[in-house]
Amino acid sequence: MYSPMNSQDNVDPRHRVRLGDESELMAAVPAMLGFHPHRSMVLIAFQAGGSGVGPTMRHDLVLAGDHVDRRAGRHTRATPEMLDVIDHLAGYCALENIPAVMAVFVDDRLDRTVRTPHLLDVEALVLELDTTLASFGVQLSAALAASEIADSACWWSLRGPQRHGSMSDPSASPMTVARVLDGYPVRRSRRELAETVAPGPAETVRAVAAEMSRQRRDGGRSHADELTSVLSYVARGPYDTELDPTDVARIGIAIGHIQVRDALLALTLGDDAGSVEEFWTALSRVLPRCERAIAATLLAFSAYVRGDGPMARIAIDAALDADDTYSLARLLDRSLSAGAGPELVREVAETGFACARACGVRLPGDPFGRR
């Protein structure tokens, strides 16, 4: 899976890594992604003039190894899947006017001192990248490899002059520090990141579902009451304890109404966006399937707005796994896959203020609302 976005919009300029220092740049990769990559191809875009880092793109690294598929054509060791990925990412770079990228390959099967079939596969991918990117007017400025991203781990170059070195400590990377200070930890793996939105205990989900049925039998509330109720729960953060099933049920019913859900999209634009994201993460674990899809989509929307493509992708996948027909999740899925930037999603978030006003509620940060 690839996610052509990152969280650079939220990184303090004082914490930008120096692009000329491969050791520091490699150490910053986990912070760019939000997790330590494993068997991955990562493309790091450079801004015009090489003054900073742009979007970061990642895809699972699919290598032929001892089973080269000659159907890929052109007698290359690159697998058909990776050729398609390279074509897509090169097109995205051209669309976003990205002048240059650096490729980073992280795979525990790679060893600088041994020319294994997997290393030959990666070298073939570098050639494909160089040719395809050039056809779109994008420069492959460097290609580096490592068996892992870790303190003192070895990295080496895959093209141009042969270079190698030891990485800086990823946990001490200025970009990692900035991300943590913003309230977003760097996970040890993509799987660990996915586990943050995995369904919680089945008995808890069943208790919430039963409570939702009971509350629906008791009759509905106005959209204003529902939205106000959700806002009061959001304000309780941080969410270091489980919410009561009665409270979770009330929230689940509320976000099931499109007007309330759309109003809540605007919360991603406020100063408390991090707490809001934590709120949706907690809710997505304990709600029944249909409502879990809604909470996970709200989490994905929040991550998308702040430019965290990997978290957005994981939350979208969780939403679609819960309900593959949920329209907002499918829309975000198409937008993320197409490489649409966060600014387009922010425009949607801004409509949430109007939705809240239509419910009779003024959201924090809405300069046009009236109490």
Description:
The protein has 371 residues and is of the alpha+beta class. Helix content is 49%, strand content 10%. It has helices at 22-33, 80-95, 117-135, 174-181, 190-195, 202-217, 223-234, 245-255, 258-264, 273-286, 289-305, 309-322, 327-337, 342-359, and strands at residues 40-46, 53-60, 100-106, 139-146, 154-157, 164-166. The chain has a six-stranded mixed sheet, sandwiched between helices. Strand 1 (40-46) and strand 2 (53-60) form a beta hairpin. Helix 10 runs antiparallel to helix 11 (289-305). The radius of gyration is 22 Å and the shape is elongated. It starts with 21 loop residues before the first helix and ends in a 12-residue tail after the last helix.
Shape: elongated
Low-confidence stretches: 1-19
Number of helices: 14
* Helix/strand order, N-terminal first: HEEHEHEEEHHHHHHHHHHH
Q: What's the helical proportion of residues? A: 40-55%
* Major sheet attributes: 6 strands, mixed
Please state the average pLDDT score: 86
According to DSSP, the number of beta strands is: 6
Strand arrangement in the largest pleated sheet: 2-1-3-4-5-6
| End-to-end C-alpha gap | 45 Å
Oligomer kind: single chain
Rg is 22 Å
Q: Would you tell me the structural class of the helices and strands?
A: alpha+beta
Q: Classify the beta-strand content into a percent band.
A: 5-15%
